[in-house]
Write a structure and sequence with these properties.
Elements (H helix, E strand, L loop, with lengths): L5 H25 L1 E7 L2 H19 L1 E7 L2 H10 L8 E5 H9 L26 E13 H7 L19 E3 L5 H13 L8 H11 L3 E4 L3 H10 L4 E5 H8 L5 E4 L6 E9 L6 H11 L2 H11 L12 H4 L6 H6 L5 H18 L3
Parallel strand pairs: 1-2, 1-3, 5-6, 5-7
Antiparallel strand pairs: 3-9, 4-7, 4-8, 4-9
Length: 351
């Protein structure tokens, strides 16, 4: 039998390679891509390593995680309005309410998983909470014991003169600081719609006890570890990072209530992947994903069916009793006045 002419063999090889490339390219093109924007750090790592791989496998999709804090995510959505590149946005509840007010979120489709959520999680018809932490008080247990002080148990303890220059407090540009302002207003006869009593209490009674107004969580941890402060306004999730170092930080839910801070999600509109966006949010709300995120990043499940180990549960607002006791703030009112409050804070409180 005659051997094939070299030029014919080469041509056949080229055709085979071209066909293979076209076939591979077609398969690659058929795989959809979903762009999810959310916080960096431990949240990003938890999603990339523990949540996203399972969703990709289940739906044959490539998920690209776009990291940025909630303010940065909101700014991206605003800049891309009408030509959105992001499909799903994950933000703190304050910025999420701004996104809702600006019509950036699509309506959530009906799904059985939403019936399993705590009522606090349903932010609107377009957005849902996907995890919750509490704003409360963190204190150095050893420092309190050495001084013979009882553990703090009230937001009013921030005004106690014995803590002069021993408290760390985030500014009003930080959600924890904003929560403190609103709670001080409520305790003194005001509310989100009447913030005057909150400013007066902070300026006259809390500020003298504040050594520093600290926005960065790592800086607050450092001041606590150095003994510069013995008490601070903390988030339950943030407290975990310092507790995990072995530092004797205790987190307290004040008797008036810890304040809910939710991580929230919505599908963006317009959206090139509307169905996958809805499926991703539903997946994040599944008991499996909720349990993983609770363990990895300290956000308590909003799905009532999730079962956590006692060790994990004790570190967050877990279960109907703790969740129902959380205070929910009026973000619609707050967001309308936040820039004005920030200017006033800088002028009168943090001088």
């Amino acid at each position: 039998m005659k051997s094939q002419h070299p030029s014919l063999a080469i041509s056949a090889l080229r055709i085979a390679v071209t066909c293979a490339a076209l076939t591979t390219g077609h398969a690659f093109a058929a795989t959809s891509t979903l762009y999810v924007a959310g916080a960096g750090g431990s949240i990003e790592q938890a999603y990339k390593t523990k949540v996203i791989p399972g969703f990709e496998k289940l739906h044959d999709v490539k998920v690209v995680y776009v990291a940025g804090n909630s303010t940065e995510v909101l700014a991206k959505l605003q800049a891309q309005k009408g030509r959105q590149q992001i499909n799903v946005a994950i933000m703190d509840d304050g910025p999420m309410y701004q996104a809702l007010q600006q019509g950036l979120c699509a309506k959530l489709e009906e799904s059985a998983v939403y019936k399993d959520l705590y009522p606090i999680a349903r932010l609107s018809a377009e957005a849902t909470g996907i995890g919750v932490v509490a704003t409360g008080i963190g204190y150095n247990e050893e420092a309190f014991k050495k001084r013979g002080w009882p553990a703090p148990n009230s937001w009013e303890d921030l005004k106690d003169p014995r803590f002069k220059q021993l408290i760390g407090l985030p500014p009003v540009t930080n959600t924890y600081g904003l929560h403190t302002l609103v709670e001080m207003a409520r305790l003194h006869g005001g509310s989100e719609k009447n913030i005057e009593p909150g400013f007066n209490a902070l300026k006259d009674e809390v500020a003298p006890n504040v050594l520093a107004w600290v926005a960065a969580p790592g800086e607050m941890d450092g001041m606590m570890q150095n003994g510069d402060i013995v008490m601070a306004v903390y988030g339950s999730g943030r407290a975990l990072a310092l507790q995990d170092t072995g530092f004797p930080l205790k987190f307290v839910y004040p008797k008036e209530g810890g304040i809910a801070l939710q991580l929230a999600a919505c599908g963006i509109t317009p959206n090139a992947q509307p169905e996958l966006s809805q499926q991703f949010i539903q997946y994040v709300l599944s008991p499996e994903a909720q349990g993983v995120l609770a363990k990895e990043i300290g956000f308590a499940p909003v799905n009532q069916t999730v079962q956590l180990s006692p060790e994990v549960a004790a570190r967050m607002p877990y279960g109907p009793d703790k969740v129902s006791a959380l205070i929910k703030v009026d973000w619609d009112t707050i967001n309308q006045q936040r820039s004005e409050w920030t200017a006033r804070w800088n002028r009168t409180v943090e001088r």
